[in-house]
Amino acid sequence: MSAPVFVADLDWEPVVVLRNSCTITEAARALAASDTGVALVATTPMREITERDFVAMVADGVEAGTALVHLDLRPPCFVRPDVSVEDALTMMIVTSRRAAIVADDQHALGVIRLADAIAALLAGSTWVGALRLALHIEQEQ
Questions:
Q1: Interval 86-125: pLDDT, tens
Q2: Which residue segments constitute the domains of the chain, with CATH numbers given?
Q3: What is the pLDDT of residue 129?
Q4: I need a labelling partner for 83 at 20 to 30 A (CA). Which of 7, 74, 97, 122 fits?
Q5: How is the chain split among helix, strand and coil, in percent rounded to 5?
């Protein structure tokens, strides 16, 4: 049996943090440049904006000059570095996210992507981990 793989073992992408006064256009450019699919919005409480949010805003006809502070964004999906990749992956699947923010008690440290977590789990585990993932995905549908 393979040793568990933890979020700390993955390569993280840098976290993009956007001002809440940032417009949708500015936010989309920043997110496109980062290639992570998610950015934190500096509001109280903290929120996140994803690629899916931009698609929904275009579909809903939201003006490109709208500031992020005026949008109804969901709370971020945070995972700790000491969480297993299997648990982080499960959290992303259950919450329909393609990425999660790695954070400790004080700071956002990086971003992990769903595809990278899947690759790490499948490369570093037995068929049991893959079976658990498949069964969990099947239950969610």
A1: 899 989 999 999 999 999 988 999 999 998 888 887 776 5
A2: 7-140 (3.10.580.10)
A3: 60
A4: 74
A5: 45, 20, 35
**Whose CA is closest to 100, among 123, 19, 140, 110?**
110
Q: Specify the pLDDT at position 5.
A: 87
CA distances from 111 to 15, 35, 60, 92 (A): 6, 10, 28, 12
Alpha carbons 133 and 7: distance in angstroms, whole number: 16
- Distance CA(104)–CA(92), nearest Å, equals 18
Q: Where are the alpha helices (DSSP H) in 35-126?
A: 51-60, 85-94, 114-123
Task: Return d(Cα 112, Cα 100) in angstroms, integer.
Answer: 5
Q: What letter represents residue 89's amino acid?
A: L
The first and second tokens of residue 111, run together, are 């971003």
- Please, how many CA atoms are within 13 Å of residue 76, restricted to the half-sphere of its CB? 28
Residues (pLDDT < 50) of the chain are: 1, 141
Radius of gyration of the chain (CA): 16
pLDDT at 130 (0 to 100) = 60
DSSP β-bridge partners for residue 139: none
* Contact call for residues 111 and 35 (beta carbons, < 8 A): no
